[in-house]
């Protein structure tokens, strides 16, 4: 009898489940949209990113296959086991509709789309509180308003370029030692330390932070990694608030607490310094600004809850180091396999920077703006290896995406990886070809000269309307907008900082060394929130003998 009741209940539950799926799936306005197939259960039926593992990068493979399949244009749909649509947007016009028009403010109804549900949950879990990376609406807008100015080129470049130049010069010394010894160096590790140093310096405006709190400067990245991997533990997803418990968060909470202690301490130091500077400026009338933390403090927005600022600084560190570091690593891996490109970039850089050693203070924004080939190298790297392979958004209400209505409640993945590997726009997409990013000779002058030192940082004017019209062909690929930092309201806050680091590192290295990849080092991607080189990147450096000007 008991068994019968259990069976009946189970049967009823299964029927409700199947009915719910069938109704949602077959009455959806997307019922007839093309459906991509994936051999991966997580993607196909849950609309989830598959958990990272050491095998093939199935997520990237899936996104590329979808992006290259004309039948799946402009959108294609996976239905989750709950019958919820996950919409892949595979055209530039569609991505623009979602990220620019969809995220735009609408006073009455709010934006059509907002940051994806799952990514918000992951960020909340990891950071343990609201931050610029997991909030939406007004809660996000005031943070963005306060934190954006220090990341604009006019503030960022004069304050940060000397430090970036200095740190990059130290890295050149390390490369030089390996060149002398003839040993290969794993550069991803080096770049992670570099970008971590840079973001910490810029956030707090000083070098003497108390790194002992996190077990030493070099351990900072390890604690961030542990924190970032926190979302992988099954307990972190337990329902009814169980995932909030210390027990459920035991694999990553200690790292988070340690990192927040470090931030609180750094913030105090930044505040003392900021007050001292303000006192010394009394009477000048201008508010002093000297670092991102100070901009936050000055705004008064964090006065009632200093922990909000701690969370924002944690998420800025998190967003600001590994994306740029891995991009540099992929970039070096490609340069190392393309001596012809190295030679062209070397000649360009040498003309502008002169022979090494290049004094850090002699590296100026003006000089960096005269390096179109260096730009082309980082653009091509981000095309082939976008740090963020898709942009997830949640659809609040029906939204038109490249002439198809996507219903409210759906989740969207803007398929950055797939679109940038589409041969209709980028012929031979697997080929690392920097010429894609060079304007034809007629307009070359506009690429090589710059009226304004800082405007050029957002190179190629990629966000100008004409470039986002969605009509890109192989002839106009050089004008393809930079979608790798996303578009619209949530455009990457640290884009200019990342570009500053990328340009400086590529230029200084090409000026002094030639690179080769260590034999046997296979370059493959792995997605753990961002795109990483799975096997690391091992480079042999050779000092260039030609120490002349060109
Ligand atoms: C190559 C380097 C980088 C790439 C490719 C990159 C890419 C991106 C992308 C695609 C997003 C949107 C993510 C989403 O909507 O889910 C984003 C957002 C963001 N990025 Fe970056 N990023 C890079 C470096 C940085 C750096 C150096 C910082 C330093 C502060 C930073 C801070 C942020 C922040 C705060 C956001 C959230 C912006 C908002 O929602 O208003 N990023 N980035």
Automatic annotation (TrEMBL):
Pfam family, one: p450
CDD domains: cytochrome_P450
Signal peptide stretch: none
Swiss-Prot/TrEMBL cofactor(s): heme
Heme is among the record's keywords: yes
Entry keywords, A to Z: Heme, Iron, Metal-binding
InterPro entries: Cyt_P450, Cyt_P450_E_grp-I, Cyt_P450_sf, Cytochrome_P450_monoxygenase
SUPFAM superfamilies: Cytochrome P450
GO molecular function: heme binding; iron ion binding; monooxygenase activity; oxidoreductase activity, acting on paired donors, with incorporation or reduction of molecular oxygen
Residues the entry annotates as binding heme: 492
Family label: Belongs to the cytochrome P450 family.
Protein's recorded name: Cytochrome P450
Organism: Absidia repens
Lineage: Eukaryota, Fungi, Fungi incertae sedis, Mucoromycota, Mucoromycotina
